[in-house]
Design a protein that fits this description.
With about 150 residues, the chain is of the alpha/beta class. About 30% of the residues lie in helices and about 15% in strands. It contains three helices and five strands; from the N terminus they run αβββαβαβ. It has helices spanning about 20-40, 85-95, 115-125; strands at about 65-70, 75, 80, 105, 130-135. The chain has a five-stranded mixed sheet with strand order 3-2-1-4-5, covered by helices on one side. Strand 2 and strand 3 (about 80) form a beta hairpin.
Length: about 150
């Protein structure tokens, strides 16, 4: 607080030359809270044309588990087609109930984004939270050589 208690408080009220900064701190805290809440929400409405990834390839496990979503929306676990209802059980059998196994999710380019998210929700509901999306690698272009 900016106020102080004076020892010689008499009949006269002495002028206080100190600035009360409490209202300024209150305003700053309110602004900070508003920006903290609004900042994550501001990225949701932006339309983004995602580029292809040119990141270095991560090390591949010995026996990766692939879940594939085909263009006709059929699901496959490895080379075998599975029903959406049986995906969790089939994954449990394949991974011996190891929910820490990374699942590599592949989807046809024509598959709707909502369908892909539906499969990710199925994997999450089955307890598999480590999901890697599989895509084609593109060569890294030097900076400044892309189109206009």
């Amino acid at each position: 607080m900016a106020g102080g208690i004076r020892q010689n408080a008499g009949e006269d009220l002495a002028e206080n030359h100190e600035i009360n900064v409490t209202p300024f701190i209150d305003v700053m805290l309110v602004l900070l809270i508003i920006f903290m809440v609004a900042a994550p929400l501001s990225t949701v409405d932006i339309n983004v044309d995602l580029p292809a990834s040119s990141a270095a390839q991560a090390p591949r496990p010995d026996e990766p588990v692939y879940v594939t979503l085909r263009a006709n929306l059929d699901l496959s676990l490895g080379d075998e087609t599975v029903a959406r209802d049986g995906l969790g059980g089939a994954l449990d059998n394949l991974t011996a109930n190891d929910r820490e196994t990374r699942i590599f999710l592949r989807a046809d380019q024509s598959v709707d984004y909502g369908e892909l998210m539906g499969v990710m929700n199925l994997l999450r509901a089955a307890g598999y939270l480590k999901i890697a999306l599989v895509g084609l690698e593109t060569p890294l272009e030097p900076v400044g050589t892309s189109g206009p």
